[in-house]
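Regression test case RT-17, inverse folding.

Input:
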């Protein structure tokens, strides 16, 4: 993972719903940081779905995992995000919001990380990578990263709500990346739920 919390003093009570949300963010962070391991594919293949949009996305991801190998998913990851010179998608907030890397969204994110006590551990990777943002949300929602009341709501609004749904919709349409298209569907469904929940009064 790309970022680690360095400090935090405010206590945060985490209920079961928050733990489930944190696990969802952590799963997305893992899948967007690198291709899934064989072990992770095995766990994903056992996911259970239901009739909700998120449950349907879980079922589709489970089916995609059953049809994928570790090597095949790694090739998909390379083709989608890395490529020979450039992948199909550049998964950075600055790219989506300004059309170029290292833009103002990255500057604002670095300021937010400084306030939260999060230190950079991978100087070669811009911090506004979608995996880093999902990992940060997992920490904020799950209590591993602490800060003022409502810091998770503020972080989501400023650094994910503005572009993450569009990113996941683009990922959903990647071709022929069957596994990562299902990751896109999961991310889009989850971000839509989070956006609706955070739009409610605190």
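Golden output:
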């Amino acid at each position: 993972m790309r970022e680690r919390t360095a400090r935090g003093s405010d206590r945060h009570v985490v209920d079961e719903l928050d733990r489930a949300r944190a696990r969802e963010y952590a799963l997305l962070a893992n899948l967007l940081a690198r291709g899934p391991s064989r072990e992770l594919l095995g766990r994903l293949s056992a996911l259970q779905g239901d009739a909700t949009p998120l449950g349907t996305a879980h079922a589709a991801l489970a089916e995609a995992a059953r049809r994928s190998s570790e090597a095949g998913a790694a090739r998909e990851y390379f083709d989608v995000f890395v490529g020979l010179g450039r992948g199909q998608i550049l998964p950075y907030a600055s790219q989506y919001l300004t059309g170029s890397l290292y833009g103002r969204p990255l500057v604002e994110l670095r300021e937010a990380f400084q306030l939260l006590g999060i230190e950079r551990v991978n100087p070669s990777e811009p911090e506004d990578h979608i995996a880093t943002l999902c990992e940060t949300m997992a920490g904020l929602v799950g209590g591993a990263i602490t800060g003022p009341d409502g810091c998770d709501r503020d972080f989501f609004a400023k650094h994910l709500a503005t572009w993450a749904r569009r990113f996941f919709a683009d990922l959903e349409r990647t071709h022929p990346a069957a596994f990562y298209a299902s990751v896109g569907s999961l991310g889009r469904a989850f971000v839509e739920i989070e956006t609706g929940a955070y739009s409610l009064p605190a």
